[in-house]
Structure formats: C-alpha cells, structure tokens
C-alpha cells in the first residue's frame, strides 16, 4: 500500500492506544494486515516522493487535530517496513541490477500474502481501508 495509507492507519491506531510501545507494535502489525488487502503499488521514484509529501501533509493535519506523540510513533512504525522496499528500488536503479534483492519484512518477502489490484480499484481499496479504520476507531473510542 501507499505510505500515506500505512501512515494514516498507524497514526489512528497509535492515537487510539495511547501508549508508545503499543503504538509501535500496532503500527508494524497494521503494515502486514494492510499489505494483505488487495491494492496497487507504484514503482517510480516520483510517485514515492509524492507519497512522502502526502505523509507530511497528513502529519501536519494530525498535529492541528491534536494528535500526540503516540500517534506519530504508530504512523512512523507503520511506514518503516517500506523503507526496505525503497532502498531496494533505489539500489536497483543505481546499480542497474537485473534481479531484485531479497526483502525481509513478512508481507514483502512472500511469507504473508501481498495483495495486488490494478488502478483505480487498488486506490479505492486503500481509501476504503482508511475510512473503515477511522469509523471503527471513532465508534470504539468516542
Ligand atoms: Zn509494505
């Protein structure tokens, strides 16, 4: 999934749980669950840069909405696993590698299924996921 999707869900989970360690654990766990949902990914660096800009925008909005440090920890933990994907793509581009280096995070290595869906449905599932998590947490904690 896009980093902004992982970050938004991790942010909400971290804010809901209100504990830094639990926020970190939930952020990482949410990454595995969200990667299993059919979605579209991107492979161009410009899309990754846009995705990170969207993460920054969501973070700024969350600060204005009063979210705390646990939310930030949850959000960062949720996007952290995709750092290995970004590093692999950058290495492949720089070194002109023909085969993809090994990935280690369970939803990237093949240990846990990684759902795929073409556009526009792959984006629709991500929007629906963020909305469903927001609705579920809102009704559970408010
Ligand atoms: Zn991932």
- The portion of residues forming beta strands comes to under 5%
Strand tally: 0
Question: What proportion of the residues is helical, as a percent range?
Answer: over 70%
Q: Please, how many domains?
A: 1
Flag low-confidence runs: none
What structural class results from the helix and strand content?
mainly alpha
Radius of gyration: 15 Å
- The N- to C-terminal Cα distance equals 28 Å
Total DSSP helices: 7
Return the string of H and E elements.
Answer: HHHHHHH
Cofactors and ligands:
zinc ion
Average per-residue pLDDT, rounded, comes to: 92
Outline: globular
Largest pleated sheet: none
What report would you give on this structure?
By secondary structure, this protein is mostly helical. It is 72% helix and 0% strand. It has seven helices and no strands. Helix 1 packs antiparallel against helix 2, helix 1 runs parallel beside helix 3 and helix 1 (3-17) packs parallel to helix 7 (121-141). It starts with a helix and ends with a helix. Bound molecules: zinc ion. The site of zinc ion (ZN) has 6 residues, from helix 2 and helix 6.
Briefly summarize what is shown:
It contains seven helices and no strands.
Tags for this entry?
single chain, 142 residues, mainly alpha, 7 helices, binds zinc ion
Topology:
Blueprint: H1 3-17, H2 20-36, H3 45-64, H4 69-79, H5 82-95, H6 106-109, H7 121-141
Helix pairs in contact: 1-2, 1-3, 1-4, 1-7, 2-4
Zinc ion (ZN) binds at residues 31, 35, 81-82, 107-108.
